[in-house]
Design goal:
heterodimer; A: 250 residues; alpha+beta; OB fold (Dihydrolipoamide Acetyltransferase, E2P); five-stranded mixed barrel; four-stranded antiparallel β-sheet; 30% strand; B: 237 residues; Ribosomal Protein S5, domain 2; five-stranded antiparallel β-sheet; 12 strands; 32% strand; globular
Amino acid sequence: MEQTTSALKVSEKDVVVPGEILAEGIEYLPGQGMYREGNNIIASRFGLVRLEGKVLKVLPLSGKYLPRRGDVIIALVEDVNISGWRVNTNSAYTAMLSLKDASGDFIRRGADLTQYFDIGDYIVTKIINVTSQNLVDLTMKGPGLRKLEGGRILKVAPSKVPRIIGKQGSMVSMVKKATGCNIIVGQNGIVWVKGINPEDELLTVETIKKIENESHVSGLTDKIKEFLESKGKVVEIPQLQEGGDHEEVE
Amino acid sequence: MIMYKKRLDGRKFDELRPITAKVGVIKNADGSAYFKIGNTIAYAAVYGPRDLYPKFLQNPEKGILRCNYNMMPFSGSGERVRPGPSRRSKEISYVTEAALSPVVNLEDFPNTVVDVFIELSQTDAGSRCAGICAASMALADAGIQMKDLVAAISVGIVDGQILLDLDYQEEAYDKGDVADVPIAVIPSTGQLSLLQMDGQISKKDLMKALEMGKNAVNQIIEAQRKALKARLEVREK
């Protein structure tokens, strides 16, 4: 099979499955979620195709969260040790929050650590390091990093998190304004919602589930706006700054 | 020996039983699939990558794949294979693992496990093949990195006639020689990742039968791909 011409076999937003040939020839470059075999670029994940110039990408539709340095996540305290806290990150790996990163205060040796975080607490925390063996270190030092009091937790697919946040956080701030609820979206797919009354909280949960289920639909922001308006909320779509058309895919 | 023109159920010699494939049938699982071929029905559920204990099973270089094959108690007619945990189901779990491992890439997830549970609610021969087909769809649905999907089918020879996709009646034929050869194929390379045999077959016939199996694999892959792609359309409604 001698072939010198380059050809794209798929188009933007196509759903592809592992083993499907995406492009032939050397004109296109394989990005994440695919590999090159001889003359062909072949998908290695189930997802949507994205074309960025000559670079192909597969945006996965599912999959577990993989801890990455710098991500802000919502995690569950699972155990309290002598030297810190063991925390469930909603991924295949647990993380360690050590004493020195846990608080701005000086924590004395032998102090009762449950006064800071107890088993069962949810915390907003940041990943400071991930080793090659995926040992994860966390910190609580930073803006917005804290223990979560009250509210409710819901889980979404980690691959849908960029959709829920939206361009420059437009989606989540729209929902926040409309419902009056406080929302924190962790990169690991855990979302915290707290409102003044339960009705608004439930509406927010419903809205987030809707965004998750329809994440691949185009014009999603308008659809969500319609949905919230049908529930009697006043919605305004936040205006993006000039030149800010990049997506927050972090 | 009589020269047959058709099979007992009216199929041609190289014809598959009707296939139905669905994805996302088990909500709690990270990925799941349903694969029905003729009267054999397989469900597969994938959980993970997740923590692996006991610790000595962990592989610090990559995640491991762990399969579990099980026939439900009411699944068969009970004539030959008794359902439930047995040497047989343990062996099939192991060959399923071996059939899927070459395409699955878990290098990003050291020290973890991906669990695949295959349950058969109804069996009429070819259950390990149906299980492998369902499992490969479920793995893709779970967002696992894979080189390719895997398709599996049985070929064989019954009373001198090479056949594709044997059903239980053919497999249990007792008035002549029977050979049952389940195979799994990685379609992009044409490699076999499962090759077992039960019975006797000559080398020449085996090669012919394998060729027949490889040709049929495209139909299965097509059904698997369609099912995966349909998953999104279901969500859209």
